[in-house]
């Protein structure tokens, strides 16, 4: 797939597994350059993320015909530094998501996080122009397409749960992940979990969610995502977010004098135009 930004002609991968390589090649210096000027011009009319305006959200009673539910495994296998974020791998068998805005069953593939250089920026979606310190994405693919990569080709191929992180009290469950970030400080480093982390405990059990049709927020920005963004954030401590910011976008030994510019500090895409899309509100 090829798209153009200014004088650049960029070849981007069809698989999300190659996104880190694409971002680093394009930016020249890794995810710390992952800013507005780079990815504002992906083609299409349902790009993500967006600025969610609660006063413009539509309550959709159809979302309550079959409540949104998930059955995720109660463990996470390993944590990987992709070069632009941390990514957590889970047992995928039986890891299902269904209901709400979804017409088919989806399977959890992985979850990852976006954050900023301070506690006031980092989430990809914003609400009334206000950011949160980070946003976790639980990426699920539509099982009717047979595989993750095949699902990327269709408008309902993925369903992503978005969870905002705001600074407050320490999150005990997330601590099981934060304690590993020093073990994956460099790109491509991977480590198993020492203590069982239940991804279900990072998700709300009640409350409301926003949903709309959107895209991947990293190249190739496929417009294949049904977004489900929870209204209420979870609390994490400043120290927990700081552990993310110590991760590096370079491989170990890739630079004789690693500096701040090699840290993964702002790996979020800025909000894009909602255009004619409707953002709906549903309840768990």
TrEMBL record:
Keywords: Lyase, Metal-binding, Zinc. Its cofactor is Zn(2+). InterPro entries: CA_dom, CA_dom_sf, Carbonic_anhydrase_a-class, Carbonic_anhydrase_a-class_CS. Residues 19-283 form the Alpha-carbonic anhydrase domain. Its EC number is 4.2.1.1. The keyword DNA repair does not apply. The keyword Transferase does not apply. It is an enzyme of class 4 (lyase). One of its GO terms (cellular component) is cytoplasm. One of its GO terms (molecular function) is zinc ion binding. SMART domains: Carb_anhydrase. It holds the Pfam family Carb_anhydrase. It catalyses: hydrogencarbonate + H(+) = CO2 + H2O. Belongs to the alpha-carbonic anhydrase family. Reversible hydration of carbon dioxide. This is Carbonic anhydrase. It comes from Daphnia pulex. The gene is CAA2.
